Amino acid sequence: MSTSAAVPATAHHPAPFGWSVDRWGFNLFIVSEAIIFVNLVAGYVYLRWISPVTPAMVVPPRELIVPSVNTVILIGSGVVAHWAQGGLARGRRGRLEGGLIATIVLGVLFLLGQAYEYTHAPFTPQSGTYGAAFFTLTGLHGLHVVVGVCFLFVLLLRARAGAFSADHAFPVQAGTLYWHFVDAVWIVLFTTLYLL
Amino acid sequence: MAATAVGTARPHGAALPHTGLLAWLGTTDHKRIGILYICTTFTFFLFGGVEALLMRTQLALPRSTLLAPDTYNQIFTMHGTTMIFLFMMPMLVGLGNYLVPLMIGARDIAFPRLNALGYWVLLFGGIFLYSSFLFGAAPDAGWFAYAPLTTAPFSPTPNLDFWILGIELLGISSIAGSINFLTTIFCLRAPGMTIGRMPLFVWMTMVTAVLTLVAMPSLAVAAALLFLDRHLGTGFYLAPVGGDPLLWQHLFWSFGHPEVYILILPAFGIISEVVPVFSRKPLFGYYMVAFSGVAIGFLSFLVWAHHMFAVGLPVTAQAFFAASSMTIAVPTAIKIFNWIGTMWHGTIRLTAAMHFAIGFIGNFIIGGLSGVMVAVVPFDWQVTDSYFIVAHMHYVLFGGSMLAVFAGLYYWFPKMTGRRLSERLGIWHVVLTFFGFNLTFFPMHFLGLLGMPRRVYTYAPDQGWEYINFAETVGAFILGIGVLVFIVNVLRSLRHGEVAGPDPWDAWTLEWATTSPPPPWNFVTHPPVRSARPLWDLKHPEDPDWRRGRSGGGAAGLGQPAAAPQPARDTHRDESVPAQPAHPADVELPEQTYWPLLLAAGLAVAFVGALVHIVLLVLGLGLVVYALLGWLLSERPSPDAEPAR
Q1: Which CATH architecture best describes the domain B40-508?
Q2: Whole-model pTM?
Q3: Least CB-CB distance to A10: which of B3, B573, B642?
Q4: Do B221 and A39 touch (CB under 8 A)?
Q5: What is A18-195's CATH number?
Q6: Domain definitions of chain B by residue range
Q7: ipTM score
């Protein structure tokens, strides 16, 4: 750069944080997803505590055992996914594949728990704004868990085919990041929908 | 994507045809996608314009019966929805698509396939929205679709479903677009092009992309909840079952106000490119223009409730939102002073582009001032929902954004087509536009103060509104003639326009350092970037910006601290501005692929299915999954430029 010679158009100025194109794109995608949940949770918070129009939201009695177990399962799956990703960095494919399988199993267990919740809930989407918010928020989150499980499953297939290495780890990192995101959203939902 | 080009022996995709219809359907070239965006959105602009003329014809005389009341509702709703979501927003995305990679010296946008997907989703979303007319069921609740009017008890027909689903499609398109812009700007700038050396249009596109990314999800959520209310029987917006119609307004306007700046900031960017070039001076106060754009973007998230002064918010909230809204006038005025400062003592060349840019400044000031007026709560109570508001928003959106788009089209048309637009017709376009625009919209201020409400399909003859309304209709048709002149100009100049050459305006940014139109790969090499005006440095080796420590700013501006003096030998290597050789073997061409088109089609079928029948929905989702798999399996190996961490 110190000379004035013409520059080949393939070279680029360093990106912020040194992130690659794929990493920037994927992180921004996660940001947009997060903002969707922020809006939904804000809408629920508004209806429950802020809205001047309606009387206090009628919150039905909530059963905490299944969702608590589910929370532990999902947080545990996040730890496992992180461990699996570490296996790739150290070149241990067995750890990567085993970790991915365990994460997928835990994700499916979570979905089963969620299905139990849905079939045993004493309220419906039509029975008031709590029910409406509950099914909308957990439904969209559940959809993300399904997408996450599919994501991890594709990663597992490609990992078994030897597609990843310590130098080509971005898809695995993206999959784990997505899974952590799904985890984080659940913690917010569990707090606002069940605990408060 | 371009990063791996070096060393590839044979260009990818070269075997596929790059001409004809198929080439356009499968293109991932940011320039072609930009052209598609510009042509498509201009077509929608004509639709929206015809709707405007229908409304003005209806309102020309009192008690007119041209349009039935319910038809009028559909027309004004589609006019607003079209102009905002199908024209101005994607038009600016289209200009950004074409220009941003060229301006930062990149070969393509970061995610070319995602870029194509964004365009096709926009096109299908627009067709989907307009198909509602075929069923006589166009959306009819205004472009901001207030609940509870839009909920099932009050709007049982499918009109609003077209609106909701169409908006969701357009939301997908614009979120994809903003991810693409941000990644491109962050990762693909030419070496030496720091953030502080980017052209202002790139700056403003960057800020706009952040706004879109943060604001668009609010609208998507608001519309999704409305859909659930209408079809699943939830009651988010229905007070009788514990919901709150104000939730819609909060969600909608927390999108809607940033949206206003999504529509104007790229226009500021265009003006900041056009004014310096035609004043023969660097932009006055580069950093002030850039940072005031960022400030506007930030403030835009703190002002949404100024659209809701009349709904009974707490007084403290009203005071806060009034103050924050007025604050926006400060960074906006900074920009205006910077443009005037740029022209001051400049050698102004009064081209059509420059006429539009100057007209932009004048008309936008009027819109900005009426904006400060309606930020005053008691004044807003007086004029809300009246024609004063219609006047205000058209002064900022037409007098602002639209004039800037015209300025930009005159300025960059030579780059896109290789030929100039006719300046003679251009001046006619300018005159008709300014005269027609001000005749249409300036009297609306008075009409609003005289009490005429917006969105009424007719009025009684004894209100004192007849002359003003009639004059406005005449103005609207003059404006329409101006647009026709522009279309004639484009069509004629495409064939007979003066050949432009690579750099017809003697400009300074990198898009002028390649042929007009640029080759598919944009650049093989480009000049070194050591200031905000790399072509100035190239053309003036005796006085380059970087030696003076000038950034984009003039001598009086906030320049960068002077760089350490560089050895200045052999600065001008006389590769007279663009010497781009014919397609060199090691340059990767944009690929041809139909997966984005297929994926967008699947989404469209699924959305139609959500409205019509579950079978169609499943079919569409199946197509989406198929296209997604095809997309992923045919993905080019990703350039993992990231250093090992």
Answers
A1: Up-down Bundle (1.20)
A2: 0.91
A3: B3
A4: yes
A5: 1.20.120.80
A6: 40-508, 591-639
A7: 0.94
